[in-house]
Write a structure and sequence with these properties.
Blueprint lengths: L2 H20 L16 E2 L9 H15 L3 E6 L7 H11 L7 E6 L4 E6 L7 H17 L3 H17 L3 H13 L1 H57 L1 H25 L6 H23 L2 H29 L2 H14 L11 H22 L4 H26 L1 H29 L4 H17 L6 H56 L6 H20 L4 H36 L53 E4 L1
């Protein structure tokens, strides 16, 4: 760089540093920054979406060749957003084709720093701000604002003819520089086209892979049916049928891409993405049955060993029968016959299940050599019978303890059902599912109070009825709880908002000459929402609380805007009476008359990784940014 240029750049940075140090502290709570990466978020406002923002910035750079930087801070402390963003861009030594988005979340201001040499026209930049950036900012969606801005810049660059005209003029006037910009535009379009071609190629590969998986699975199912029978493989047949339907649908979509009827690039992208999604679902449907299929194959292989194990297990279950009969005889001596109705026939049922299991084992062992699938079916039947028999014997073993606890359990269930019935009558009378469950629970409760009931059966019936009624009431009671919470919070919220609105109103009264329409509008809206909250707080506490919270946000915004207006007015007055002189007036407090320059901007001449700091380059930008940058409230 020539000595004179280096001297000018150094002077600009010295003046910038002097200004940052010397300007009154009240106007510099958040000074401009020298950003070290694509995303600067000292307060962690982006939270778990920071990585999503970085990915969007990476995609933006890959598609456009230039870089977008995002800075999120609490406040610019009343300084115009475009000026704050321009100075941050200068301190960070960004290039002409870089863009910096600054967001002040508490002050609800933004700045979009754009250099004079930036490829997009003013109308295109305005469109990005109006259609992509501001809607998200107004919803306090900071991450969404950054992502939408990146997408909007890409979209604007891909459209013509405005960009083409701009690039053509630069090419004629700027010679080599214009050729570079044109090359960047061509590379951007090429990247978009490559992206579409890539996704179409991936959709084709996914479709081929899914079709191959279907064909292989069909062959495997045929072998499995020969081994295990149609009934034993029914769930696998269902999964294969579902997967085949998904792949057939994907082929239909692929035909739309291959036929002679043209589609737009966006339509082709959508179709390709749908093909990939369908193939993914088809594969997942098949994969979900792999483990069960492998278990069935293992059972087929292990059938002889399993039948031997089941024969041993049947003998072990049979040894528990004498003890179960003895337990029931002891219970019959202490409890009336009616108390044992749910367990007194368990030994007989166990005997039946044991006989079935032993028969299945014998038949399975006989079929091992000639019909392995039949042997597996017998093994499964024997396993199920022995499992049921063990459960019945466990119930007999636990009957004594259950009978002793039954009176207390019944009393507890009745108390809980009575409470649920009160809630059902008060809050769920209009809900059919609640009234049905309540009728059933009421009937079970009345029956349970009879003296001749089986305690164990009564406990089971009460618990089932209680569970059903509680489940039916759950959404109703959740809404009741939400209303009560809103009602509890409402009084304090309304009182706090009233105080805040009154305080801001008094501030506006005291400094009326310095405060503009935006702050007054927010204050008026805060009052309107507070009035709505007060009007609906009895009939609809939830809606009233939402109105009050909206009023609180608007009042806070009004206060911030009002103080910013006052700070700006005081800064203007200070500048007019000596301060820094005419060059640092209100129209250019940060940038020197409203047009800052990235006098020492640098940009890597090679492709940069957005996760690292920008590397030094011989390229420098001296273009004015103030005239093209955007900023304001939202």
């Amino acid at each position: 760089m020539p000595f004179a240029s280096r001297l000018a750049a150094t002077a600009a940075l010295v003046l910038t540093t002097l200004f940052v140090v010397a300007w009154p502290p009240a106007a510099l709570a958040e000074p401009p920054l020298d950003v070290s990466g694509p995303v600067t978020d000292p307060e962690g406002v982006l939270d778990d979406r920071a990585d999503e923002v970085r990915r969007a910035l990476d995609e933006h750079q890959a598609a456009t060749g230039y870089q977008l930087f995002v800075v999120v801070v609490p406040t610019f402390d009343g300084v115009d957003g475009s000026e704050w963003a321009d100075l941050t861009a200068s301190l960070s030594r960004l290039g002409e084709e870089d863009v910096l988005l600054a967001i002040a979340t508490e002050e609800r201001s933004y700045g979009l720093s754009v250099a004079d040499g930036f490829a997009l026209s003013d109308d295109q930049v305005d469109e990005v701000v109006d259609d992509h950036l501001l809607p998200h900012l107004r919803d306090s969606d900071w991450a969404g604002a950054a992502i939408a801005t990146a997408d909007g810049l890409v979209d604007a660059g891909e459209r013509g003819p405005g960009l083409w005209i701009t690039l053509g003029v630069v090419a004629v006037v700027g010679g080599g520089a214009g050729a570079t910009v044109l090359w960047r535009g061509a590379r951007r379009r090429g990247a978009a086209a490559a992206s579409l071609a890539d996704i179409e190629q991936r959709s084709g590969s996914a479709l081929v892979a899914a079709d191959d998986a279907i064909r292989t699975s069909e062959q495997e199912l045929s072998f499995a049916q020969a081994q295990f029978g149609t009934q034993g493989t029914l769930e696998f047949q269902t999964a294969l049928t579902d997967s085949r339907a998904l792949v057939t649908q994907a082929f239909e979509l692929r035909q739309r891409l291959d036929d002679d009827v043209p589609e737009s690039d966006e339509e082709r992208r959508t179709i390709a993405e749908e093909i990939i999604a369908l193939c993914t679902r088809a594969n997942e449907t098949l994969d979900a049955k792999i483990e069960a299929f492998e278990a069935l194959r293992d059972l087929h292989r292990r059938a002889p060993e399993m039948l031997t194990e089941l024969a041993t297990r049947a003998a072990e279950v049979g040894t528990r029968l004498p003890a179960a009969r003895a337990t029931l005889e002891g219970l019959a001596a202490r409890y009336p016959v009616s108390a044992l109705g749910s367990v007194d026939d368990h030994p007989q049922e166990v005997e039946r299940l044991l006989a079935q299991a032993q028969q299945d084992v014998t038949r399975g062992q006989a079929a091992i050599e000639g019909d392995r699938a039949a042997a597996v079916a017998h093994a499964r039947s024997a396993e199920a019978a022995l499992g049921h028999a063990s459960t019945l014997l466990d119930a007999v073993d636990g009957a004594d303890a259950a009978l002793q606890a039954a009176p207390a359990t019944i009393a507890q269930c009745l108390t809980q059902i009575d409470a649920l019935l009160v809630d059902a009558a008060e809050h769920g009378a209009d809900d059919p599912s609640v009234t049905t469950a309540a009728t059933r629970a009421r009937g079970v409760a009345e029956t349970s109070r009879a003296s001749d009931q089986d305690p164990l059966a009564t406990v089971a019936a009460l618990q089932d009825a209680e569970t059903a009624l509680a489940s039916a009431l759950a959404p109703v009671m959740a809404e009741v709880a939400r209303v009560e919470q809103a009602r509890a919070a409402l009084a304090g919220t309304v009182s706090r908002v009233e105080t805040r609105i009154q305080s801001v109103s008094q501030y506006v009264d005291a400094r009326a000459g310095s405060i503009g329409a935006e702050a007054r509008t927010r204050l008026s809206e805060a009052g309107r929402h507070l009035a709505a909250a007060q009007q609906t707080q009895v009939a609809d506490p939830v809606a009233a609380l939402a109105e009050a919270e909206q009023a609180d946000q608007l009042a806070a915004s009004a206060e911030s805007l009002a103080r910013a207006d006052v700070n700006r007015a005081e800064a203007d007055q200070s500048s007019s009476f000596g301060g820094w002189g005419g060059g640092w007036g209100s129209s250019g407090a940060w940038s020197g008359g409203g047009s800052s320059r990235r006098s020492s901007s640098r940009r890597s001449s090679s492709r940069r990784s957005s996760s690292s700091r920008r590397s030094s380059s011989s390229r420098r930008s001296s273009g004015s940014r103030g005239g093209r940058s955007r900023g304001g409230r939202f």
